[in-house]
Every structure is written in structure tokens, then in C-alpha cells.
Task: inverse folding
């Protein structure tokens, strides 16, 4: 736990309050605003910087780190020189798997990081991001995304850590601890987004109404945010674009103040998702008749800063505060929070890039990225085909995703941003970003041109085909079809290649990012979970020609093709693996390591089977559904069970679970342990998962809840003890009056390799229930690995 940073600094509050007293209304408003900078060619005199500015949004950054550090120093000096009180600005950028800046670290997208089931990997990554951002002078990251991905139609699934609130809570705390560090004066402020319920909306569509009741919002969607607040002291939160119970979330006092601050204990800064305030106007949500009205609604609700430009929190509000039409205490409250954060980050003491101290962090990070990428790969089917040991085998590499670098990268990475701003030249698809300057000409999208730009930006990257050729000299590649356009295909050529091969590596998937040339990503929501274009037809034709087909899938959401799962010999899920994706996929196929990733979401069989949620309530899934259903299958002509359950993943070796023990003290302190043994002939990782259940309760409870995880590396034949420490109150819940309770009764626990893998179980009966302060509850188990038994 990041103890030192958990509470806001008293000294920072004091200094901020003293400065606030000296500011004019106009200066205060400017501290709540932001301006966008997209390139060093922009004259600073033409930007909204005179009088100071609260924050600067960095988009379309083409400068390399050292040049960017020099430019940001120049900008900071300009801003402070034009501020009466020399108040520095807070620079921000996206940083899900690395700063969106050339030549910085490039880890896999968050959905893949969630699949590692390894919080330490996320912590180490975030610590690297922290040092790189400090070197360049960027003190604020618009990451991590803590939305719980229950509906795979939603295009931004790749930005989440998956579909379980406990897994997301673990990963979010690891990210925040790594990014903010032990002392914010040497850290970078993290942003939890999007508050709240952004990922479960009408039709799975981005920006639409949140479809969740108050209990689901509190217990499921708020859990990762609450963990990041209470355990890790996250300093900024970003609102959701959606509306809930009739109020836009950016203007909902019930959400931004009553829930976020009063109930969850958040004391930091709430920042707007780009141009959220404008959504209140009559052309969209129609809850405000002017931008000033919209801005005041948001400010009163608890929205502190407006990103990426000053449209609502602009100088026109100054008159309203000065003449008494608006209460100045709302303004002072927000400005005090912003100034406090700047003091905590040490901006007033040293506002400039720390190149000399942190530039060493920009040295080659490839080994860490490579190791993390290998941890993401999830083997979800294998009928003995993998690994391919015969290096002289004739391998037919087929599919559009085998020969492209861009298709390995997800949104909010440097390659995808480079594509949006520079290669394609159309930024209109990204929410809140308005294209400035002369319109750029529209043209047919050219993936090859994007690939050339990505190869130049990421020279270490290899396509799947290139990486396989380095291991199997008798490889050929046939595209078979386009990744998106169903009319562009040559399936007969692919079938011919499959017939003449000993084995087929069929690389399928999509493209994650912005624009209609992508099938997943922000604003790219889908009514179908099928493979895009002609890829399903390609798969059926190729597998019919050669049964020895391994399907490698890369996209912003996992593969959900029931036919492919039924007929292929193996399925390797790679998510959005990034620069080291091709190398990692080839190494796994060749048996250089044993894949050990786990599915961070349960897989529905189609879009019609979703939304699908692992921790679903009794009566809505599994045996409890079948016991009370008229149709035990669930649907006409289809079952309602997942294609693969949450936490699922295979290995090239095998593991046994022995000596499961559970002990629970009267105060709820709990410990569970199990001996895990590698019973196979290959070294490998096992992901040990602990689940719990409140058997009978006054409120309908989940069939099971994730308690903790532990990824452990074991040599062939080696055994280690995995221990989980937690509190029974992790299974507490609000009763029908909203009071948190740990009710008396029976609790059961089991341990295994995934959510449907019961290797050993135990139960405990709590004799007397108790009310609970939610601030003191456990969010997830802490895991440790002990010496061999």
C-alpha cells in the first residue's frame, strides 16, 4: 500500500489556501481551465495561456523525449511569466501502457495486462511510466481506466482490466502505487476513469445512458475506484460521459459529491472527460440552455477542472461570480483542490522537466515490455497441437493479422495516435477533440502506409509472420482476406496454402482505435461480436482443409466464435499485445515458454448472450439459474453458459493443488493457503485463484466472488505454498437500507486455476453478524509465495 501518499498533504493544503486568498476571480477561473497543445509549431501567443492556465493537454506529440522536455520547459516558463502569481500549469497525456510520446515505453493494452493476473507487472510498468513522464515534465496521466467490462459490444473494452471488479481493483491499485510513487513530489498524478458506470450503457454504445441500478453501481462499478481511493490515494478522477437516473454524470451532485467524496472518501480533483460540459446543451442531453448554465451545474455538482479547453469554465463566468449570480464558494472549493494538487506534486518548488534525474529511465525498456507481453498470452484451447516442436515443419501462416504491425496495437498508444493525427489526418473521431486549421483531405484508408509509419516509430516490432520465420524456416504467408473489408478476399489461395502445410497458424482479429477503418475502440461499438469482414468464412474454409490449425486472435476484445472453438485445434488469445506481440506469439507457438495468461472476462457465445458477468447473482447464472428456469438451457437453440469462464487459461504443463487450509479469526481476519505443484515436464506459471461465496443472505448475492489471485512460477516438479491474507468483510454488502453488513451464516471458499475449476474447498460459519464501516473493508486478498513444502 502506498501509505505516504494515501492522505493529502496538510502542508500542501495550507500553502494552497494561502495562495487562493490572493487570487482574483479571473485568475481562479483560469486554474480550472485547460488548453490543448498539439505541436511545437504552434505560436504560444495564439494559445489560451495569457493570465496562466490550470492544465495543458498534450495531443499529437511528435517530438522525441529530450526535445519534448525542452519544449515543455519553454511552455512552462511562458505560462508562469504570464501569470500574476507565477502559477505553473499541470501537463497531462494518456499513459495506459506508456506515455503517448515517441520513444517511450510501450506495454500491452490494459485488457492484456488484466490477463496477466500479475499486479506486480502493472506496478513495475507504472513505475517506469512515472520516471519517463517526470523526465519530460508531464506530471498528470489520464490513466488508468477502471470501468468494469461487462458488455463486449462496447468499443473501449481494451482499455479496461477486464470484467471483474476485484481484478480491476487489484490492477488499479498496482498502477496508482507505481505511478504516484511513495511521495507525490517525485510522482505523477493518476486519473481513475470513467466515474461511473460508463461501460454498461444502452445498446453497448459509447456515451449513452448507464444501465445499472444503484446497488450494481455501488458494489460493482464503484469498487475499483474505491480501492484506488482508499488503498492508494489516487489524486484525480474523471467523469463518465453518460447519464444515470436522468442526470448527466458530470453534473450529478449525487455521483460526484455524495457518492465519490462523502461515501468513497475522495479528496482530490475531479477532471472532465473532454468536452463533457457541452453535452448538457440542447443538441445532446438538453439539461442546460447555455454553456454558462451547463458549467455552473457541473461546478456545483463537484466537477473541478474542464478539459481539454476552456468552453464552460471561461472568463464569461467571472461576471456571474462578481455580481453574485453564482456563489463564489463553489469556485473557491474547486480552485483550492487544484492548487493543493499542484503543491503536492512539487510544481511550485520545481515546475520543470527533470531530465538530468530521470532520463536514464528512457533507456531501452524492451526486456520488461517483452516479459509483460509474454505474460498476457492466454491459451484457451489446445488439443495437443501446441507447442510446435518440429522446426522443419511446413507452416502456413494465414490471415490479415499475421502481416501487419498496426493491428497489434490498441487505442491510446503512440502508434494509434500517430495514425489518427498524422497518417490518416482526421482527429474528428476522438471524443472531445476538434480538428484545427485547414481541413485535411479525406482519402481511402491505407493500412500499408500506417504499417510503414509504425515500423519507423517501433523498429523493435515484428509481425507475427516475421517472428515465426525466425523460428520456422519453412513458413509462408497468405493474407486470405482483408481485416475489415468483406469484398477483399482470396480464400482459395489460403485453402491451397493450408492443404500443403503440416500446420496452420491462422491470425485473425481486428483493428482497435479511432475511425471507421477500425472495428473496436472509442466510438467503435458493435452490434455483433463476430470476426470482422470475411474472417469467419476464411477460418471455416482453412480449418476444413487442415485440422492442425492454431487460431491466434488479436483485437480489443477476446474471440467469441463458437464455431472456431468447436473446430480448431488450438486458440491463442493475444489481445492487443503491442510492439513485442509478434515475438511473444511466435515464441509461445514454438514452445519457448508456457502461456499462462487468464481470461479477464467471461466469453459470451454471441452478442445476444451478453452482457455477461462473472460475479452474476444467484438465479441469473449457473446451477442456480437452471434450478429455477423453465428452460434450463437459457435460450432457444443455445445455452446461456460462457464459451470460456472468467479466469480460464491453459498451459503446456500441469499443476496439482494440495493441502488447502482456511482459517478465519473472530474479527474476520482470514488466511487461506494451498500447495501448488508443477506435475508436468516443463517450467511454467500457474495462476492460483481464490473465490468466496455468502451462501444465504438477506440480499441476493453473487454465485461467487473473486477474493484473490497469485501468479506463481514453478520449475518442473517444484512445489510452493501460496498464501492469501484477507478479511471476511470482503464479502460484506449494503442491506436494503444501504447499511453495510457482514451477515451471520455460512461462507464457502474454493481455490483453483479458474472460476469453474474447484480444486479444493472449505466453509466457515459466522455465528454473529455485524455492521461494517465500508472504509475499513477489504477489497482483495494480499498473496504471498512461501518456500517449498
Result:
Amino acid at each position: 500500500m502506498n501509505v505516504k501518499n494515501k492522505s493529502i498533504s496538510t502542508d500542501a493544503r495550507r500553502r494552497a489556501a494561502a495562495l487562493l486568498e490572493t487570487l482574483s476571480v479571473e485568475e481562479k477561473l483560469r486554474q480550472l481551465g485547460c488548453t490543448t497543445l498539439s505541436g511545437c509549431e504552434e505560436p504560444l501567443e495564439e494559445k489560451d495561456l495569457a493570465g496562466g492556465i490550470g492544465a495543458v493537454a498534450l495531443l499529437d506529440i511528435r517530438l522525441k523525449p529530450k526535445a519534448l522536455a525542452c519544449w515543455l520547459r519553454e511552455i512552462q516558463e511562458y505560462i508562469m511569466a504570464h501569470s500574476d502569481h507565477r502559477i505553473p500549469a499541470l501537463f497531462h497525456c494518456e499513459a495506459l501502457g506508456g506515455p503517448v510520446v515517441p520513444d517511450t515505453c510501450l506495454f500491452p493494452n490494459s485488457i492484456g495486462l488484466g490477463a496477466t493476473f500479475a499486479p506486480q507487472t502493472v506496478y513495475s510498468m507504472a513505475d517506469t511510466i512515472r520516471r519517463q513522464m517526470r523526465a519530460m515534465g508531464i506530471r498528470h496521466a489520464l490513466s488508468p481506466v477502471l470501468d468494469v467490462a461487462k458488455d463486449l459490444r462496447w468499443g473501449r473494452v481494451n482499455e479496461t482490466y477486464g470484467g471483474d471488479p476485484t481484478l480491476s481493483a487489484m490492477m488499479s491499485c498496482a498502477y496508482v502505487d507505481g505511478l504516484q510513487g511513495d511521495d507525490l513530489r517525485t510522482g505523477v498524478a493518476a486519473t481513475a476513469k470513467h466515474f461511473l458506470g460508463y461501460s454498461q450503457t444502452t445498446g453497448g454504445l459509447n456515451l449513452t445512458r448507464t444501465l445499472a441500478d444503484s446497488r450494481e453501481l455501488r458494489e460493482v462499478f464503484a469498487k475499483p475506484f474505491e480501492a484506488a481511493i482508499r488503498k492508494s490515494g489516487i489524486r484525480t478522477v474523471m467523469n463518465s460521459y453518460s447519464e444515470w437516473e436522468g442526470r448527466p454524470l458530470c453534473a450529478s451532485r449525487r455521483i460526484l459529491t455524495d457518492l465519490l467524496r462523502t461515501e468513497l472518501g475522495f479528496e482530490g480533483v475531479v477532471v472532465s472527460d473532454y468536452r463533457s460540459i457541452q453535452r448538457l446543451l440542447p443538441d445532446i442531453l438538453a439539461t442546460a440552455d447555455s454553456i454558462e448554465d451547463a458549467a455552473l451545474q457541473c461546478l456545483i455538482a463537484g466537477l473541478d477542472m474542464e478539459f481539454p479547453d476552456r468552453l464552460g469554465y471561461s472568463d464569461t463566468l467571472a461576471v456571474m461570480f462578481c455580481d453574485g449570480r453564482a456563489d463564489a464558494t463553489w469556485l473557491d472549493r474547486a480552485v483550492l483542490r487544484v492548487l493543493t494538487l499542484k503543491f503536492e506534486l512539487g510544481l511550485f518548488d520545481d515546475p520543470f522537466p527533470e531530465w538530468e534525474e530521470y532520463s536514464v529511465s528512457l533507456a531501452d525498456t524492451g526486456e520488461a515490455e517483452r516479459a509483460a507481453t509474454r505474460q498476457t498470452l492466454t491459451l484457451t484451447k489446445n488439443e495437443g497441437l501446441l507447442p510446435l516442436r518440429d522446426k522443419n515443419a511446413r507452416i502456413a501462416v494465414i490471415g490479415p493479422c499475421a502481416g501487419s504491425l498496426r493491428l497489434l496495437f490498441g487505442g491510446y498508444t503512440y502508434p494509434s495516435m500517430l495514425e489518427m493525427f498524422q497518417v490518416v489526418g482526421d482527429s474528428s473521431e476522438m471524443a472531445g477533440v476538434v480538428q484545427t486549421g485547414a481541413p485535411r483531405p479525406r482519402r481511402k484508408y491505407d493500412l500499408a502506409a500506417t504499417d510503414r509509419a509504425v515500423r519507423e516509430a517501433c523498429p523493435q516490432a515484428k509481425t507475427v509472420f516475421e517472428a515465426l520465420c525466425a523460428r520456422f524456416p519453412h513458413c509462408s504467408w497468405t493474407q486470405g482476406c482483408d481485416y475489415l473489408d468483406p469484398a477483399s478476399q482470396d480464400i482459395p489461395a489460403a485453402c491451397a496454402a493450408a492443404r500443403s502445410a503440416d500446420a496452420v497458424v491462422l491470425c485473425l482479429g481486428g483493428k482497435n482505435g479511432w475511425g471507421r477503418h477500425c472495428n473496436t475502440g472509442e466510438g467503435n461499438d458493435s452490434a455483433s461480436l463476430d470476426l470482422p469482414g470475411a474472417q469467419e468464412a476464411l477460418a471455416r474454409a482453412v480449418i476444413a482443409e487442415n485440422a492442425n490449425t492454431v487460431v491466434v486472435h488479436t483485437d480489443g476484445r477476446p474471440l467469441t466464435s463458437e464455431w472456431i472453438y468447436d473446430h480448431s485445434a488450438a486458440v491463442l488469445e493475444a489481445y492487443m499485445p503491442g510492439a513485442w506481440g509478434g515475438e511473444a506469439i511466435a515464441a509461445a507457438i514454438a514452445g519457448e515458454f508456457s502461456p499462462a495468461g487468464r481470461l479477464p472476462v467471461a466469453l459470451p457465445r454471441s452478442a445476444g448472450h451478453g452482457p455477461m458477468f462473472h460475479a452474476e447473482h444467484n438465479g441469473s447464472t449457473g446451477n442456480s439459474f437452471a434450478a429455477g428456469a423453465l428452460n434450463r438451457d437459457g435460450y432457444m437453440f443455445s445455452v446461456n453458459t460462457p464459451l470460456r469462464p472468467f479466469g480460464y487459461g491453459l498451459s503446456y504443463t500441469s499443476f496439482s493443488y494440495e493441502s488447502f487450509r482456511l482459517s478465519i479469526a473472530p474479527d474476520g481476519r482470514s488466511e487461506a493457503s494451498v500447495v501448488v505443484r508443477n506435475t508436468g515436464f516443463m517450467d511454467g506459471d500457474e495462476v492460483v485463484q481464490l473465490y468466496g461465496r455468502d451462501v444465504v443472505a438477506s440480499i441476493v448475492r453473487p454465485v461467487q466472488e473473486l477474493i484473490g489471485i497469485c501468479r506463481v512460477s514453478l520449475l518442473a516438479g517444484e512445489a510452493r505454498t501460496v498464501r492469501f491474507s484477507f478479511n471476511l468483510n470482503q464479502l460484506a454488502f449494503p442491506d436494503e437500507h444501504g447499511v453495510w453488513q457482514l451477515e451471520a451464516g455460512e461462507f464457502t471458499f474454493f481455490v483453483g486455476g479458474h472460476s469453474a475449476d474447484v480444486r479444493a474447498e472449505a466453509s466457515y460459519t459466522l455465528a454473529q453478524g455485524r455492521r461494517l464501516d465500508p472504509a475499513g473493508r477489504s477489497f482483495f486478498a494480499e498473496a504471498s509465495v512461501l518456500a517449498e513444502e
About this structure: The mean pLDDT is 94. The longest strand covers residues 684-694. The chain has 22 helices and 28 strands. The two ends are 29 Å apart (CA to CA).
